[in-house]
Records
---
Amino acid sequence: MISYVTGDATVPVGSSPKIIAHVCNDAGGWGRGFVVALSRRWPAPEAAYRAWYRQNDGFALGAVRLVQVDEGLWVANMIAQHGVRATKAGPPIRYQAVNRCLETLADHAVELDAGVHMPRIGCGLAGGTWDRIEPIITECLVKRDVEVTVYDLDDHR
């Protein structure tokens, strides 16, 4: 089941282990959208993303890296956006990459016995639509009994 709450995804609710998931681009850019809020709270996710990009060690669409930011709390940098701007071919979101990322994330969540917390991933600067993202979340996470909490800064329901 996906729970929808009004609040800040960088301040996830609950006492069990948590993974904050978000979509990154494959161009090495970090500085707009949800990542700004992440960087305000913790420098490690941005530093890890930039190092991963420079090293090019598995940095590609569909890849995920977890960064521990506190005890029982990780940020999942998920590469699911090609570039940073829409082109004639469409928005930068890559739904297949979202699927691969969430499959990998499910493995991590099960291993850590963690819930997954996120904004409406892929629907901001990446240009995706929630009606395409939500079923991927259900297929990859919910069907594996991973608790998912989606945060809206204001009530979108």
---
Amino acid sequence: MNILATSAGYRPDGRGGARIGPMIEHAIALSEAGERPSVCLLETATGDHPVAYLRWYEAMGRDRPDVRPSHLALFPMPNVDDVRAHLLAQDVIWVGGGSVANLLAVWRTHGLPEILADAWRAGVVLAGVSAGSLCWHVGGTTDSFGPELRPVTSGLALLPFSNTPHYDSEPGRRPLYQKLVGDGVLPAGWATDDGVGLHFRGTELVETVADRPRAKAWRVALGEDGAVVETAVEPRLLPDPRG
């Protein structure tokens, strides 16, 4: 029962495209699938933009030809006959970024919360970046409703914590997240700088990892005096097989 919740995914390939980054590699490794792992991409948070899936197949075909990539699109209708069977057949499910509020609404329409929970309990690695990180938690901070960050509290809650990505790159994230935890709108939780991932086994955080130096994870919780305490966690730097 593994979840990898991250602020990282692809890396630039130097030609204006994308390559499979160390964080996606780590998600695949966590599956311990051996030869020909099955990895499915969900880009619900971008409305299943076709360019996102094209990038996925191009990057996987070039960087990980041993992987059996697939995708689940829900717009305008599911692209597979049996959504449940398809997702439960995967070794890894990777969820892309975008609007977490829209993602959660569409997922609920199609019954994905229950399917994904069953996949998790069956040993499928659930992973993703940004919205694909926040979705597994109780809630966090989001720009789903406009440029001004707001709370979202309708996450799948497989992990009983709050979560905020992009902690170091979007200035509004840190103060809002701490306020929401301090006010009790969100439970205590974890934030990630860009490049950092949180590896949970069950609901226990077992490791923090990063695809770049100097990036950190952060524990945000109430201290004994009721004030918010932010604690930095140094992640393990992942190797990059493509330099």
---
Amino acid sequence: MWTDEQPRTRWADPETFRFRRPDLRLGARQQRPDRSGLVAGDRIAVRHTVRTSTAEYTLLLNAPEWLGRRGAGAALRDAVAELRAIDLTYGPNRPESLVSRLRRGEISPESYPPLADLVDRCAAMRAATDGWFDAWAVPGGFDPGGLLGGWAVERAAARLRAAGIHDYAVLSGADLVVRGHAGHGGPWRVAVHHPADRHRAPLVLEMTAGAIGTSGVTGRQGHVVDPHTGEPAGHLVAATVVGPDLAVADAYATALYAAGPAGLAWFRAGDYRVLFAARR
């Protein structure tokens, strides 16, 4: 049983991947996981992509044989239902979502425990980033969008673990969470491409637990606001952070994107490390 939730990430020598394809790619034109078809041992491989109103998620599960295909399917449906429920229930662009109702003062965070957790996480990240991540300093009021996607993925991943699946990857855009092992039985091989220089060799990681969060690669201008000035941030093309929890990594990436190159001076985040902070 997988019990160690500490991040385990190794910077691998790209030369070792000359004849070994990565399992996952981030930042490439083709965001889809590579297809190998190889599954080691008694495992049930499941791959599924789901789209909500705001994001597309790809789930790769290597379920234990004892769970059976029916059990693996039930676990997948539960994780997908969590992603859809968060999109419906917490999306700040939905007028009747809990976040929108909180903005209008109709409810308090304590009304719903998951909402209280989301608000607490936003407050903690505001403190951890010296205010560069600030869910309250955006037009329209409280907007947890900088970490909402990562929070949703982590909650869906928790559903998988509760069902007995401890080897999985969940991808959304340039973000991912992995645990356990890939289908070939080894660590997940992740190729992280530079957000601006397509000719640069990708950064190669081997991961058995951890997350990668990115801000700024969607191509949208002005989607991250400098919380100190209220103006759209634009110093960086993208910021990418690796660490234990995707919601936290996403928030750090958003803060770095908002702060620009100056953010690297204050970024001292223990288990979290900057992979890219690409200037324009």
